[in-house]
Amino acid sequence: MKIEKNLKKVERILRRGGVGIFPTDTLYGLIGSAFSKKAVRRIYQLRKRNFKKPLIILISKRKDLGLFGVHPDKQTRTVLDALWPGKVSVILPCNVKRFFYLHRATNTLAFRLPRKKALLKLMNKIGPIVAPSANPQGKAPAVTAQKAFGYFGDRVDFYLNGGTLKSKPSTLVAVRNGRVTVKRKGALKFPKRSNVSTFQYKRFPA
């Protein structure tokens, strides 16, 4: 399916707790609504993912963090403003009990605010999504919709074709007490250990 022409159809599927393959700002993702326990459970099962590992959540605007009971302090907001929108996922504290199915007892969640217009348009309609890379755990991420189909076949509800995606996964960082630590190297490079002053007057490119 082509992206723009099928966003409404994808929206309807996701609202029903469906899941599918969507070209994100980095790689193809296996996406579902972050507020659907059914979709989240299905994604874990399809990817054969370790149930103890949380999923990264994509949001369309920073204030969406509040939907998860996440309210960053001033230092953290400075870091987020420097990194977002962009290919960086940020680990933030979340100890809200009703989101256990997302944080998996880690009491943290990783969030990313992407730049991709079609993705933002979709989330503005249905809200935040989970979007791990479209591959079973331990396999190489799918760089085409065809490769994703080879992994999942008809076990997902839709495939959107966005051509070949060659980006690295998002860089994963943790922010705590004004310190920024890289947990996973990825698409955006910056010092492994930084503090909030590194981000105060700098805008990192997407």
Automatic annotation (TrEMBL):
Pfam families reported for this sequence:
Sua5_yciO_yrdC
Q: Which GO terms describe its molecular function?
A: ATP binding; double-stranded RNA binding; L-threonylcarbamoyladenylate synthase; tRNA binding
Record has Oxidoreductase as a keyword: no
This entry's Enzyme Commission designation comes to 2.7.7.87
Q: Which InterPro entries match?
A: DHBP_synth_RibB-like_a/b_dom, Sua5-like_dom, TC-AMP_synthase_SUA5
Instruction: Output one GO BP term.
Output: regulation of translational fidelity
YrdC-like domain ranges (all copies): 4-188
Where in the cell is the protein located? Cytoplasm
- Which reaction(s) are listed as its catalytic activity? L-threonine + hydrogencarbonate + ATP = L-threonylcarbamoyladenylate + diphosphate + H2O
**One of the record's GO cellular component terms:** cytoplasm
Q: Which UniProt keywords apply?
A: ATP-binding, Cytoplasm, Nucleotide-binding, Nucleotidyltransferase, Transferase, tRNA processing
Q: Which family does it belong to?
A: Belongs to the SUA5 family.
Name recorded for this polypeptide: L-threonylcarbamoyladenylate synthase
Query: Which organism is the protein's source?
Result: Candidatus Ryanbacteria bacterium RIFCSPHIGHO2_01_45_13
